[in-house]
Write a structure and sequence with these properties.
Number of strands: 11
Distance between the termini: 51 Å
Number of helices: 16
Strand content: 5-15%
Helix content: 40-55%
Low-confidence stretches: none
Radius of gyration: 21 Å
Strand order of the largest sheet: 3-4-5
Largest sheet: 3 strands, parallel
Amino acid sequence: MTKLNDKIKICSKCLYSSSHPLGITFNKQGICSGCEVHEEKNILNWNYRLSELKKLVKKYKSSKNNYDCIVPVTGGNDSYFILHVVKNILKLNPLVVCYNKYFNTKIGIKNLANLRIKFNCDILFQNINQNSVKRITRHTLMEHGNIYWPILAGQTSFPVQTSIKFKIPLIIWGAHQGLEQVGMFSHLHEVEMTRRYREDHDLFGNDENSLVCLDNDLKEEDVWQYRYPKLNDIRANGTRGIYLGNFIRWDPAKQHKMMVSKYNYTPSIFKRTFDTYDHTDCYNFMNLHDYLKLCKHGYSKVTDHVCREIRHKRIKKDLGISIVKFYESRKPEHLKLFCDWLGITEKSLNFVIDRFKNKKFWLMNDLNKWSFKGVSIYLKTNKNKKNYSGLKNIIFKKGKPFNKKDKYTFFGKGI
């Protein structure tokens, strides 16, 4: 374990530090809880666990040719693999649900259309009035440095709302973020979807009930569609959300490569990471949203991708450090596109961004001039830090770049 100071520690295996916002612990050898739980992937009997999953979902199969379960999807991430498992391995008939994030890319829309065709599924979209989404985004950006609150809130509430509305108790998700990154749970705990995790971690302690107050212009009509169903309704319907990652050895890179080959999933090239598979559907996740993460927490998505690849033994830690240094400092793209959509200037956006630069990781040298002092600058490799030999071997080359002239691809109401 590496110690940057008395407060910040870094895992001796991966690159996660004790400042991880989800919470992380270290054993006597300096190995983080995320790496410890990851080792379960190499020792658990996954054939047995899959058989247990099949037993679990069997009782939810409809006897009337109705939907067996709900599967939340996007035009990126693990959507294809989840549906592949649900349809072809578990033999279930899902109702697919998708929250319209409005930051849609053409690649993401293409992937959604292709997903519907390849898996022959019914898709139900949630389109919240775009003016309400903008008002909420302005508020959460100013108050919390967060442009993704409406998306995270919608993606976690809409499936539960649909479960109750259509009386489909089972919701099937991919992997649990807290388990995969920081080892918050063991696979053996078979943790399920909860309101508390949504509020504490997905929404950073700010659920929809906290938004409407006297010091902003938000109204009940803006937030009501984000409301998580009442506990009594959830219990009466028997709604539960399970994670496939507890029953299947989860490996996103390997799974995505299979989805590209098998179903023609389209990856995309990003400026701030080597991974071309995640968040292909969004202009902002790997750009402004990721940069705000760097400002507040001292690390960005490329560190998540590198830690995953180190744990799966596809790269060494030394190369991982070089990769993070290579990508982390790159400027986010499509800022003007976001500002035009929200109705603010880039100067105003930069002012807000500077407000949320965590003084633990950033040093203000002069007006509007900052030096990054995050975790990665303390990490040393055995090579010169400017030597990125071997980097080309890990970059996922297949993928289409976003066209800088493209705009958000809107569909549904609120256009």
